[in-house]
Amino acid sequence: MTESLSHFGPWTTADLAGLPDDGQRYEIIDGSLLVTPAPAPRHQLVAGRLSVFLREAAPAGADVVEGTNVQLNTGRLLVPDVIVAQSAALLTAAVALRPEDVHLVVEVVSPSNAAMDRVFKPQLYAAAGIGWMWRVELEPEGVQIVVVDLRSGSPVVHARSTDVLEVDAPFAVEIPVARLLASRAALWGDHSAADLQS
Q1: Distance, C-alpha 187 to centroid of its chain
Q2: What are phi and psi of 33, to 5 degrees?
Q3: Which end of the chain has a smaller Cβ tally under 10 Å, C or N?
Q4: pTM exceeds 0.85 for this model
Q5: Residues contacting residue 14 through CB under 8 Å, at least 6 positions apart
Q6: Are 122 and 148 in contact (CB under 8 A)?
């Protein structure tokens, strides 16, 4: 469950430095601090696997990170699950990325943040000028990726897939969505997982 903590005055990015490094995710929306529990293993597995596919497809000058700060404006700081951003911005000592350095944000929906990921975050990212968002739904029957075009300033569903996602914006990439929750051997054709059992 997402909770809001009390604080004298609006929260800022600088205030985050005084919070514990306890595995929880801290985000700021309009000066209010939102605290979300650490994601579940299944959530992190999907985010990590998506990061690998995106990193391999990302254009020159871009790279992929998981769970880092994106400063939308002075009162809004979000932590997407996966971010494709300019490598130069990732190499600085800044505590947060700027929207103009971000090519794509990915939010893996969890029960604790479903409304934020489905309704509010797309609007906030669009208002900040981020062009693309993927919303990843972990459904009982598997994974669905919803590609949301934010370039007009309003979220518009561009594509969705539960099988193989192929898109060409913000860069060309193909994701085997139906296999994101498969065993490692099934996903990568990697048989070294069997070696761990011996």
Answers
A1: 21
A2: -90, 130
A3: C
A4: yes
A5: none
A6: yes
